[in-house]
Amino acid sequence: MASKYQAPRGTFDVLPEQARSRRRLERAAAEVFGRAGYEPIATPVFEDTDLFERGVGQSTDIVRKEMFTFEDKGGRSLTLRPEGTASICRAYLEHGMQKLAQPVKLFYLGPFFRHERPQAGRYRQFHQLGIECIGTDSPLADAEVIMLLSELLGELGVPGVELRLGSLGSFEARRAYLEDLKAHLHAHEGELSKDVRERIDINPLRAFDSDDEGTRGVMASAPTIVDQLEGEDAEHFAEVRALLDAAGVSYAVDPTLVRGLDYYTRTIFSFVCDRLGAQSEIGGGGRYDGLIEQLGGQPTPAVGFAAGIERILLALDEEVPAEGCDAFVAIADESRRQQAMTLTAQLRQAGVSAEVDLAGRGLKGQFKHANRIGARRVLILEADGSAQLRDMETGEQRAADPGNLVEEMKGGDS
Length: 414
Ligand code: HAM
Known about the structure:
The protein has 14 helices and 16 strands. With about 425 residues, it is an alpha+beta fold. The strands form three sheets. The chain has an eight-stranded mixed β-sheet, with helices on both faces. The longest helix has 20 residues. About 35% of the residues are buried. The structure holds histidyl-adenosine monophosphate (HAM).
């Protein structure tokens, strides 16, 4: 009978067979980022609402429409985190990490929440993995974080991935550019979609993301910031590109690239995957040199990214088989139950994965079950106190020393 309750809209359960591919991904990420010296960090799943309003930005879709915000019993406004960067900058300041050797290199992974219209690859509770490199404005850091996501996707074997690269310049350059862009949009107001027209002065960059035909026509002749970069901004972008070239990471410069968060300055990037349909961005990020100051700290340059775990898994579309177990302890007679439990515990302590029948099956049923769970060997505890060891791959069976079963099991081939 179907259950009366279902997981809330836009959420999903991770069942054991799906948890296996997630675990492979999480291990690969910890490995790739760990090799580069990124240390794990975890922050709460909710924060003061103000942190995201300030950090992510009032004009963004995330803050305007997508946050799960609630009041706690003390009347404080809290929000389930829609992203990780603002929280990590909060933690950086709260724990005085500016006193550590810079940059501070952090790695995180966990659930995030956005009230979006659910579709394939877009959920209301989803998972991200990400890194943040805080305390340096060197283009080496930009290149490093981009390389690390590229390396992770490569190591996992994600097919059809492309990297798009852009630059927004410094805050000042961006401000000047936005005025030009607004002027261009106002000059063509009649050709724009209603949504874009209403937001010309709030968030003109989003016009680059529009699917509306009229808007696309207007954007084809719009000024782009990449073409207007000057001085140190232009040098920084050129250096990031040269470093990526040197590292053999291929990319396409996309002057129309925009991202849905307000904190970006200079480098922005997006990894897209052609297997994903409409929600094609697998991960993205960029530099956010003004965010820590915005949150009350000293000016502190930083760069990072986040990737959607579900999107990586969708693109991989693979099944990771269960690991099976080394030993199944079969109880041929009830009188051997206690010994079976003791032996199972000893095997596990010795690092051997071991299971025992918990369902009161007959011996035949236990063999069937051992087969089902992929047990490599079965230890049969016979009624007369003797023991047998069967190799499930070859079917070979031999007597085992009942006084030395852990050693027998650890001792390689049966
Ligand atoms: P973001 O682009 O908003 O950036 O999200 C990063 C990734 O999370 C996206 O590329 C996508 O794969 C995944 N994602 C976002 N929303 C959803 C959703 N509703 N369902 C499933 N997956 C989703 C950030 O969050 C920034 N904090 C990245 C960053 C880190 N920038 C600098 N440091």
